[in-house]
Amino acid sequence: MADDTATAMNDGTSMRGEPGSQGGASSGGSRGGVRETVKAKLAEQGGALRGQAQAKAREYAEQGKTKATDTLDGISRFINETAQSLDEQLGADLGEYVHRAADAVSEFAENLKRKDVDELLGDAREMVRRNPALAVGAAAAAGFVLVRLLKAAGSPTSGQSAGTAAGSSRTQAG
Fold first, then answer.
1. Domain containing 110: what range?
2. 3-state DSSP call for residue 13?
3. Residues 30-62: pLDDT tens digits?
4. CA distance 119 to 58
5. CB within 8 A of 3, min separation 6: which ones?
6. Number of domains observed in the structure of the chain
7. Same domain, yes or no: 83 and 147
8. Which residue pairs, CB below 8 angstroms and at least 24 apart, start in 129-135?
9. Which is it for the CA torsion 76, 77, 82, 88, positive or negative?
């Protein structure tokens, strides 16, 4: 029996002949070491994935910022052209107000260009902290506009079928 125990301990089997199980406290210790190693590897891989996701999110945010500033620049030019037309048609007073609006849009676009994404996020967080009601209102307004845009995008087909159905019901009734 002593020979069986010595053989079992040397070849990595238990006294019952189960491979990889040396029995006793040493088994729990080796499993704990494996668990810790796996946890460490998972944490490392999770950190790497988080870093990749953050980098990709920053890239998309920068692209969005560039598109937004380009759009704002275009809006500013359009407003300035409109202001010049108003100057000619209705007088300089009204045109001056519109020029100020164009300047404000242009200044906003320049501020966006100068700041990086982290600064913009910090500014947004600070604005929400200072005035949460404004943030909720802005979110509600943005949601309303988004819903309207989505409905408008889908309305030609639904509007035509509704009009056609209404027209056909009138002809059947009349």
1. 34-114
2. strand
3. 677 888 898 888 888 888 888 899 889 888 888
4. 12
5. none
6. 2
7. no
8. none
9. positive
Residue with structure tokens 């040397």? 10
Tokens encoding 123: 């500014």
Please check whether residue 139 lies inside any domain of the structure.
yes
- The overall longest dimension of the chain from CA atoms, in Å, is 112
Statement to judge: residues 82 and 124 lie in one domain = no
Residue 19 dihedral angles phi and psi, to the nearest 5°? -70, 145
Q: What b/e string do you get for 9-45 counting C-beta neighbours within 10 Å, with b at 16 or more?
A: eeeebbeeeeeebbeeeeeeeeeeeeeeeeeeeeeee
In this structure, what token pair is assigned to residue 2? 């002593």
Rounded Cα distance, 1 and 13, in Å: 15
Which two tokens mark 71? 């759009």
pTM of the model: 0.49
Question: CA quadruple 141, 147, 150, 155: dihedral positive or negative?
Answer: negative
